[in-house]
Amino acid sequence: PLSAMPAARGWGVARALVLVANGFLYEAALYDLLGPDFHPLRGVATAILALDYVMLARAYGARLGPDEGAVKMTRLTGLGLAALAVPIQFDLAAVTLGWSLLALILMHGGFGRAGLGERLLAYGVLLLAVGHSLLWDTASAFRDLSTYRPWFNGAFLVGLAAAGALGAAAWSISRHRDQLTSGERRLVTPLVLMSGVVLLVRISVEVIAGYELRETLTRGDLYLAMLLTLSLVWAVYAGALIAGGFAFRYRPIRFLGIAVLAMLIVKVFIFDLQELDRGYRIASFVGVGLLLLMISILYQRERKTA
Amino acid sequence: MTRVRVMQLSALAVTIAAPATWGAVSADIAHLPLRRPVMLVGERRARAVIDEDSLLAAGAAPEFVDVRLMNAQGEAIALAAEPLRRMDEQYRQLRNVPLRWQEEANGPRRMVIDLGPDPPAELILAFEGPVANHSIAVEGSADSVGWSSMTQRYDLTMPPPKDNRLNTQRIALAETRRWLRVRQDPPYNAPTVDDRLDLMLRLERSTPRVAVGYQATSGFERSGGYRWEARLTLSGPARALTRLDVSGAEAVRSQLGFELQARLPKGGWQYVALERGPEWKGGANDSLLFAPVRTTELRVVVTGGDAPNPPVALHSLWATPVRWTFDIGSGDAWWLAWGDPFLAPAAGGLTMPVTTTNGADPATISPTRLGAVEPNPFHREPGFGLEWLRRRPIVLSVAMVAILALVAWLARRPKGRSGAAA
């Protein structure tokens, strides 16, 4: 009956719920049965279950057509299980990478009105990847500094990949606008801004972790140097965003650059003014001043050419 | 329809039945392929202690999470892991001192203690009483005439204990004289019959030591040139290092500074707290004593040397073995089993760390000796090639990626049948 054409709308909804619940409850039972002695097999077992569901969807699809409700729900359950298999099998940065790739694949396969479910799943998985990168990967950087290699570690490179995935998702949406709902069309700017924020957080984490590591190794107090470097990095990043915003004539990026700049100015006045020695303080203010000058010149030039 | 249902039901049956069958084999002992008999040395006592040796260090999992004690029936026996430490502390009472305070009007009260012609080098004054709110200072004298201050003034303030118990407060003296004068400043409490003062000795007993083989490379750093560095790489597996014997040239040794770093298992270095550096009291030879650190490589940095001459010569490197204790009870045969790096740490008190031997009388603990390695007859290989897979996790990861790629490929929407553009 699950694969039969629903006679009433209510039965169709109930059938969708049963299909999803069946898949995930079965996965919970499987997960429990395989632990703790067979825990290495949990990830692969979940992936096989995902494969089962996707194959079932293919089999249903051959009979009922790919857009029939039961087929779509079976396929989505399989894809959801595939997303679940990633953190069960992998750890830390590999999870972010796996989710980012999966989100892009889902999004690529989900264009067209009938693929809304895939696209919604893709947005969800993409958000999970970003959250994982910002929370778990960041926390792991400070958990064991002794083995941390600033800038050349999986968490940072995968953070770049997550930011790239957000950018790619935004680009895909802008390319397939005619196939998307009006709500999705508005996602381009938030995705681009989120990409910029992920990049900023990951870069800041690398700077802070790098100084923490050097402090641990040298037993020196590098807090002031860290504050100054962070100011410098934020300034360069804000400058790059604003310049990029002008180059591509994309206002949201410029606004993000200005927001980073505002954050930098707040930091300079609240932290740097209190904490930094006179030399560092002068360097910090000169750097921010020069940056503001350059931005104002860019805006003036833009106004003249407009 | 029939084919789909058959596929669904068979997939369900296989996936449920397989783990249910595997689940029966799960005891810790059955996971461990190797074991060694544990033999009591000397008299049989209430407890026994097992020391790590190089064979165990090389074969067991990091932190010894896979080490279990078993009996002849293959049952796991509670094994208490001793915290790693450089030495055991013991406190022994030297004698009780009758409290005879000489009180002055509105001033401190004093009491003089004669330690005899041969006073101990170090001493602990242990005050005991129902109320502990007073200020204490100790003076010393070699002739009971000229007094010098031996401690700062201690404000000993503790709330009255419950259940009629007594407070005990200790003041350690790093050096002593024949005559000690204890001074108590007002306001102080009237003495009670429960007040007492004991003179205690603190004894240190080193934990066992084993010499560790190593290879060393050393030299002054090129820039600056005043930091001399030596890297000591152990010839065998990681051990809990705790002492390094060195000798220094007389011309420079008083100005040398020492720093130790240990290599971490995953790479990188951690600083090691030096508990006692060389004091050169006994001449050119002395030791660096530090809290035990389990590592395969030690970095010794010496500052204040006179390049290009090495500031110190390195001699022996010593480790303290990891130790476990267990209740002997009525058992008569035990084996130490290990060999599964994937075994989870024991739950249920099988390796609960306790400080049982610290301060305990050695006469209550039987030493043991570990016999030759033998296969564990209770070991059962997990089915479905899991043992092989657990040792090669990359296989599962690659399989997982392949399955997910297949999922992604199968989940593609068939071309030409997807929904029309909006």
Kindly state the percentage of residues in helix of chain A. over 70%
Major beta sheet of chain A, specifics? Answer: none
Regions with little confidence, pLDDT below 50 for 5+ residues of chain B: 14-26, 349-355, 415-422
**Helical content of chain B, roughly?**
10-25%
Termini Cα gap of chain B:
32 Å
Label the overall shape of chain B: extended
- Average pLDDT number of chain A: 84
Oligomer: heterodimer
Gross morphology of chain A is flat
Distance separating the two termini of chain A: 64 Å
How much of the sequence lies in strands of chain B comes to 35-45%
- How would you spell out the order of helices and strands of chain A? HHHHHHHHHHH
Number of helices of chain A: 11
Average of per-residue pLDDT values of chain B: 81
Q: Round the Cα radius of gyration of chain B to an integer and report it.
A: 32 Å
Output the radius of gyration of chain A: 24 Å
Q: Which percent range describes the beta-strand content of chain A? A: under 5%
Task: From the structure above, extract its key features.
heterodimer; A: 306 residues; mainly alpha; 11 helices; B: 422 residues; mainly beta; nine-stranded mixed sheet; six-stranded antiparallel sheet; 5 helices; 29 strands; disordered C terminus
What topology emerges from the helices and strands here?
The complex is a heterodimer of chains A (306) and B (422).
Chain A: H1 9-33, H2 42-64, H3 69-89, H4 93-109, H5 116-143, H6 154-175, H7 182-185, H8 188-218, H9 223-247, H10 251-275, H11 278-305
Helix pairs in contact in A: 1-2, 1-3, 2-3, 3-4, 3-5, 4-5, 4-6, 5-6, 5-8, 6-8, 8-9, 9-10, 9-11, 10-11
Chain B: H1 2-22, H2 28-31, E1 34-40, E2 47-51, H3 54-59, E3 68-70, E4 76-77, E5 80-81, E6 87-97, E7 102-103, E8 109-114, E9 123-129, E10 132-141, E11 148-149, E12 154-158, E13 167-173, E14 179-185, E15 196-206, E16 210-212, E17 214-220, E18 227-234, E19 239-248, E20 257-263, E21 269-272, E22 274-276, E23 285-295, E24 297-303, E25 312-319, E26 323-327, E27 334-338, E28 365-370, E29 374-375, H4 386-391, H5 393-410
Parallel strand pairs in B: 2-28
Antiparallel strand pairs in B: 1-27, 1-28, 1-29, 2-26, 3-4, 3-27, 5-26, 6-15, 7-8, 8-14, 9-13, 9-15, 10-11, 10-12, 10-14, 16-25, 17-18, 18-24, 19-23, 19-25, 20-21, 20-24, 22-23
